[in-house]
Amino acid sequence: MEKTLNPPERILMGPGPSEVSARVLRAMSAPLVGHLDPYFLGIMDENQALLRYVFNTKNKFTIPISGTGSAGMEAALCNVLERGDEIIIGINGLFSMRMKDIAERCGAKVRVIEQPLGRIFEPEEVKDALKKTKPKAVALVHAETSTGAWQPLKEIGGIVREHEALFIIDAVTSLGGIPVDVDANFIDICYSCTQKCLGCPPGLSPITLNERALEVIANRRTKVQSWYLDLSLLRSYWGKGRTYHHTAPISMNYALNEGLKIIKEEGLENRYDRHKRVSNLLKEGLVEMGFGFFAQEGHRLPMLTTVTMPEGVEADKARLELLQRYNIEFGGGFGELKDKIWRIGLMGHTASEKNVYYALNAIKNVISKG
């Protein structure tokens, strides 16, 4: 007889997934209905309205795509880019590199502006790049998960709008943890995920598009290269027509519905304040133990802290010991940052003083032993 599924109970303090509340887990166990059932259609309407609240947008086309945040990234790019189109992508971490890869697969001409890992882009850099070319879009990562850098958006968004390009933003780690403010920041397309600050399991990618972006899609010369992620087809399912496209993940939409209701009950400003408060508590404790911070000063995310090790501490070895002895999951570094940093997440339900105090005590025990 096969053993019953029995995963360990971890404290998820990495770059995602984050912890999920009991309310969200209960919602996932609710009875299934069909993806065209009147009850589920009502859930779809609620999810769209609640996502508009979290994105802080009036965009009618605001939906959760069936797939993780990477599906949102691909949808955002492959729906607007055709072969030969130009796009400016700001590369300062792993996920902006993925943007470049996807754009190139669409046949686009990618114009890169670069900053070292952990640094942000200044408005003048984007303005200078726009003077050299007339791209269809400019794409940036709001909260770079690989480095912990927090990219300011409003001034750059205004510059991009003045040059009549689309402004595409990756808010995978930021949505629900810091203000994204889609409309105020002149963002035309913004995508995220469910497993970070929204406090749900991985499986959906919220995305929002304004009328400028939808007009670009409507005027394409060729079909979108992905049938599954073709937003013009998904628009028919999520709009009034309810035209069948694919079988929506019912239980994940239940989870998103409950997670978004929890956010609205708390209030966005209160939620942002909670992430900031517990992040400051974590940072204070880490400084006392000799840790440093990787991301650019003044532009460090509250929900994802990247730290450098005190002398003599091996990052990956200590991280594994925290997992084995204390059931705490931290993230490691990618590429040139491998075994050099920890990525400590305090996202959504995970962002609590209790988790911070437990983690700091565990870190102290592990590094003092080493």
Verbal overview:
The chain contains twelve helices and 15 strands. It has 370 residues and is α/β, with parallel strands linked by helices. The chain folds into two domains: 11-15 and 267-369, Aspartate Aminotransferase, domain 1; 22-264, Aspartate Aminotransferase, domain 2 (3-Layer(aba) Sandwich). The strands form four sheets. It has a seven-stranded mixed beta sheet with strand order 2-10-9-8-5-3-4, with helices on both faces. A hairpin with an 8-residue loop joins strand 14 (331-332) and strand 15 (341-345). Helix 2 (38-55) packs across helix 9 (250-266), helix 5 runs parallel beside helix 6 (154-162) and helix 11 crosses helix 12. The relative contact order is 0.17. The model has no long low-confidence stretch (mean pLDDT 97).
Give keywords:
40% helix; single chain; Aspartate Aminotransferase, domain 2; globular; 370 residues; alpha/beta; seven-stranded mixed β-sheet
> Do you know the CATH architecture of the largest domain?
3-Layer(aba) Sandwich
In terms of DSSP E residues, the strand content is 15-25%
* Distance between the ends: 42 Å
Order of helices and strands: EHHEHEHEHEEEHEEEHHHHEEHEEEH
Can you summarize the main beta sheet?
A: 7 strands, mixed
Report the strand count.
Answer: 15
Rg, rounded, reads 21 Å
Q: Within the largest sheet, what's the order of strands? A: 2-10-9-8-5-3-4
Overall pLDDT score: 97
* CATH class category name of the largest domain: Alpha Beta
Q: Considering the protein shown, what is the CATH homologous superfamily of the largest domain? A: Type I PLP-dependent aspartate aminotransferase-like (Major domain)
Helix/strand-derived category reads alpha/beta
Helix proportion = 40-55%
CATH third-tier fold name of the largest domain:
Aspartate Aminotransferase, domain 2
Principal-axes shape call:
globular
As for the number of domains, it is 2
